[in-house]
Amino acid sequence: MSLEPPTYLLSLQNNIRGRPIPWEAVVRAGHITDADLKKIRSVDKVRKEQRRQTVEADIPAFEALLLGGNGGQSVLDSAAKRVDAVQYILVLTRDLIDDVPSLLSALAANPRPYKPFLPLLSQSSNPEDPTPLLASSVLTRLISSSLGKSKLSSDTEEATTKLFTYLSALAKSSDSGLQDIAVQEYSSLLRTRLTRELFWRQRTETISPLVDILKTAAGIGRNGDEASTLWSGASSIRGGIDGVLSGGVGLQLLYHVLLVLWQLSFEGSLVGQDLEREYQIVPLYTQLLRYSPKEKTTRLLLSTLLNLLSANSSSLLPASALARLPALLTNLRGRHLTDADLLEDLDTLTAMLDEYTKTQTTFDQYAAEVRSGHLHWSPPHRSADFWRENARRVLTDAGAGDLPRLLADIAAKQWQDDKQVLAVACSDVGNLVKAAPELRYKLEKLGLKARVMELMTEPDESVRWESLRAVGEWMRYSFET
Asked: CA 440 to CA 430: how far, in whole Å?
């Protein structure tokens, strides 16, 4: 899939191409040789066809110019003290490998194709520094050209890992232009299972910033009640400017981020469960799907969900039902969608979720929510009938999957971003004690009584209220017995 080059990078490259470089002074200072300069001038500021013919007439000479060889240095190493020359050569290198495929093949086949470029990634901690930006562009092109092999060489794996680390810093930037460079270069690299596995292995660096971009686009602020908003679907991604969504995220950046995660979703069995556990990907994608502004973003959202749910049906179908994805899929049909692939994925997802939901009881829904590790005010929590019919089953049924222990694990966390979870957990504990008082000792053994009493001093009003109610149930039955 070919994407338009990032505007930020194109502007930077054009700016550097227009800079006058005092090459004779660079030669006199001993930074490059006369022979180096002759090769540079033979391919600089000439028509593409002339450049191609010049390079193809002597591929080994240009390979040696860029990578070194026969005991000689790369021109990038020899010119290292002249930042202007290094940046100019990096732009020229990218032009050469784009215009002359045979040179790209020769460089990729070299035993050390990345050696002159990798050190440049760590030259500065400033994400706007042009040198590492330009080096990342060359490295991305070199690495992506060598990905057809069944196994990554140790050099390619090392280079890819370091490049992912560098790009992750760009993705964390507040500058959308830098973010887009990172995301587009990620996409160029994620064409194979091997690089997707490397990307996943570095997910704290690589994926977390992308999820942050999606949360911003979904209208979920960093300092707000993120998880609660995800499950309630109470935000909107629509912005006030054409092509710009909530939080200033551009439509193209959103599309490119979704494209990267779509590529990753082809390793669904590897990544699906942890994407949900660590990033709540299903409710996040459901929220984005609810307000998706274009068919192209809707297509990627649906296709990614289909890949993940197909590979992780036992864990992600319950999460989808909790996020109210089935109802949303029904509503999507009213949007007059026309893309054939999108409609096919919509039909497949709808059928998959219909098959799942028609067999689920209210107890199954509650159990799935507890097993997800996240609670919200879904209907069972406030239903007296549910607790009257199911409290003993929750506390005694081995087939329920040890729900009390899981409830205790949830209540034990601090939930700084979503205090609602603690309020729901306290409410559940109180309802269990009220409906099955003879079994409250099971909850006490798990430390839930002590934890609920501790939460009576919680600053959040809803948590204090629900914990007080739960303790009240314990006290009432303690007095009665």
From this structure: 10
Which three-class secondary structure string do you get for 217-271? HCCCCCCCCHHHHHHHCCCCCCCCECCECHHHCEHHHHHHHHHHHHHHHHHHHHH
CA distances from 88 to 6, 37, 93, 131 (A): 19, 12, 9, 9
Buried b (16+ CB within 10 A) or exposed e, 121-152: beeeeebeebbbbbbbbbbbbbbbbbbeeeeb
Q: Are 220 and 283 in contact (CB under 8 A)?
A: no
Which one, of 401, 407, 400, 441, lies nearest residue 426 by Cα? Answer: 407
Q: Name the residue type at position 108.
A: A
Confidence of residue 224 (pLDDT cuts 50, 70, 90): very low
Distance CA 202, CA 208 (A): 10
Cβ(245)–Cβ(254) below 8 Å: yes
Average pLDDT over residues 62-76: 91
Chain centroid to CA 463: 32
Residue 207 pLDDT level (bands cut at 50, 70, 90): very high
- The strand pairing partners of 241, in sequence order, are 244
Measured distance CA(139)–CA(116) in Å, rounded: 10
Asked whether residue 240 carries a pLDDT value surpassing 60, the answer given is no
CA dihedral 381, 211, 276, 325 (to 10 degrees): 60
Is 399 or 253 the better-scoring residue by pLDDT?
A: 253
- Residue 196 near residue 152 (C-beta atoms within 8 A): no
Question: What would the pLDDT profile of 122-151 be if each residue is shown by its tens digit?
Answer: 999 999 999 999 999 999 999 999 987 778
What's the Cα-to-Cα distance from 461 to each of 207, 430, 456, 464, 468, rounded to whole Å?
34, 17, 9, 5, 11
Distance CA 400, CA 397 (A): 5
Query: What pTM did the predictor assign?
Result: 0.85
Q: Is 213 helix (H, G, I), strand (E, B) or coil?
A: helix
What amino acid occupies position 409?
D
Question: How many Å apart are CA 212 and CA 205, to the nearest integer?
Answer: 12
